[in-house]
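re: ur question from the group chat, yeah i did fold both. here u go
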Amino acid sequence: MSEVSIFQLSIIIPTLNEEEGIVEFLQPLQQLRADCELLIVDGGSDDYTVELAQPYVDDVLKSAKGRAMQMNEGAAIASAPVLLFLHADTSLPDDALTQIQSAIDRGANWGRFDVTLSTNDLRLNIVAWMMNKRSYLTGIATGDQAIFVKKDLFEELGGFANIALMEDIELSSRLKKQGRPYCVKSKVISSARRWLSFGVIRTILLMWFLRLRYFFGADPIELEQLYRKGRFWKA
């Protein structure tokens, strides 16, 4: 990481068995390394994710499995005043740093990007539009939207709740009490692999269903198991 930088950002990337696409994901981020700290927090991959990622990042941390726990581990050692939580299947727009800098300069404590999905499927284009519109109206952001936040505020709030799923929504609910998110219109590109694997309509219904159950107090551990298997109910 550069010793002198007009803007410093720690990008925290939780991983688990991402060997297939990790190098392709990390290569574009290399142009940011003069101004950014790149941290991988691996949740116990049993493939070559760690070995492949090592040359492309400032540090690789090992953590117990769990996205919330992994991101908290990364935040704890991050050296920059602003944190960006980035999924390993989501790519940043070219102007990401400029946009985050603009948000901070305008007094924002946290924010997120609009999102698009890596497909030409019209149904998923509509899904992405709905995700962005819902986020704008509710002030709730999801991990796919690359949440960024000032480190001191993140620490003051205690970081992500250590829950198996919906940790992004839970954190957003607390963050928005401090102020609405800054909504960056430049789009991150998130992988459509889950949507295409489980079926577009099925995945839409599943996500709505799981969020509804979370709202009514369902156990996030059970919800995470259903999400991972693409099921509405336990077998």
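okk and heres the other one u asked abt
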Amino acid sequence: MTVGEAIREAAARLSATSDTARLDAEVLMAHALGVARSEMLLRHQREPVPDGFASLVERRAAHEPVAYITGTQEFYGLELRVTPEVLIPRGDSEVLVETALGHAAAQAGRVLDCGTGSGALLLAVLAARPGWQGIGIDISPGALAVAADNAARIALADRAQMVLASWCDSGWSAGLGRFDLILANPPYVEDAADLDPCVREYEPAGALFAGPEGLDDYRILIPQLRGLLVPGGLALLEIGASQGESVGALARDAGFSVDLRRDLAGRPRVICLT
């Protein structure tokens, strides 16, 4: 069987469990070959199928996310390492990065990423703003190790510091200083939410779920942000599609002015606090 034939067969196999079966099959084949997907499509279609491809397809058929199988995920032009210790960066979160870059226009500044995970948000901003420095905090040592590795892989280790901390702990921010920009993609999924198996069964629950309304972490984090921002600073929080009014109300109660940004599908995605 050739590579092209195996991709067609794998796409048919995955169609029962994936809405992107053909793309999944192509990405897994490129990973098995050790080449870029574009190169695989152009130059390797008639070659024999590499060892291990079938096992990769079976893992995906069992709902394991492609990013965890390949160990990488592209986000805002960066290729990031991901493991089951971190959430897989989504394209929807790029709205937060775009908003942050619109604010982070100065020659130098400081950014804090609350719940940094893979480091995606922090590193995307720092990569686009060479004069800025940043700190990423996370409660998970495993996630911080992934974030630190990503910072080193894209030559940002000298500007991105990863710190073990939880905004639920008293005194967690002591010594961090103040920031021009704060980013946060906290847990915001309702405990009883009906999630795709590739999310519920594989991605870290501690980074997903936040109580019956998905608001527990916002209630804790938002009141603490004022003490971390410089005058004129901006805090950006990713939210669930139905949480614009509820998170906005929490922010206004904490003394913030609130603006809402939507993703490419028109869904509420980012709350801007000033």
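fwiw on the second one: The CA atoms of residues 9 and 25 lie 9 Å apart. DSSP finds eleven helices and nine strands in the chain. idk if thats what u expected
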